[in-house]
Design brief:
216 residues; alpha/beta; TIM Barrel; 8-stranded parallel beta sheet; globular
């Protein structure tokens, strides 16, 4: 997979759903709620309970319509387990050339975590499809804007960490092309109704602002 294959999943609704802490019993129902709200990239962090099983269930139900994969991927050996579970995307909190290269060797999408220009350039040279700017709550939109000015212009930059319904638009205005939503969207053990409300809130906020943001 390549950047050109990742972008279409983010075109209509440029947010990645991060389901940290999800259990397999909730995987399909939660994925369904997120899909109906417009999410087309759904990440299960590997420090969740039985993450490979959750990925397997989500991929079986939605893998033909959405990108399902893993976050918090920190070792090379985890990549093949995600692939074997049906995952299509590998997201790391850090920049590791070995993880990036193995991800691409496995035919999967790579999103490497970076916080500095050095890490960003290293990840780009290793072949990552996009950059996860993490932790965004420390780097802030001003830091994103500065990084955007020195990396290749076609790089897909995705801030993650502390993004919520009140500040996501500031990152887009600074040059982000998508955002990752963690605890502001999903928390382990939350009810289906609560998840639906949170997902629809982000959807409505995007619908209200997308035309303005697209012209900036």
């Amino acid at each position: 997979m390549t950047l050109m294959e990742l972008e279409p999943y983010l075109d209509s609704f440029p947010f990645i759903a991060i389901t940290r802490g999800i259990k397999p019993v909730d995987a399909v129902s939660s994925c369904s709620i997120l899909y109906k709200a417009g999410f087309r990239v759904i990440e299960t962090p590997l420090n969740s309970p039985e993450p490979y099983q959750s990925i397997k269930l989500m991929a079986a139900a939605f893998g033909d319509r959405a990108l399902i994969g893993a976050g918090t991927v920190v070792t090379v050996d985890q990549i093949e387990r995600v692939r074997d579970a049906g995952g299509q995307i590998i997201i790391s909190p850090h920049c590791d050339s070995g993880i990036i290269e193995m991800t691409k060797k496995c035919g999967m999408i790579s999103i490497a975590g970076v916080a500095t220009p050095t890490e960003a350039m290293t990840a780009i040279r290793a072949g990552t499809d996009a950059l996860k700017l993490f932790p965004a709550e420390i780097i802030q939109p001003v830091g994103l804007k500065a990084l955007r000015s020195v990396i290749p212009g076609n790089t897909l930059l995705i801030p993650v960490g502390g993004i919520d319904e009140n500040n996501w638009n500031l990152y887009f205005l600074a040059g982000a092309k998508a955002c990752g939503l963690g605890s502001s969207l999903y928390k382990a053990g939350m009810s289906s109704d609560n998840l639906k409300q949170r997902a629809q809130l982000f959807r409505s906020r995007w619908q209200a602002s997308k035309d303005i943001l697209s012209t900036t």
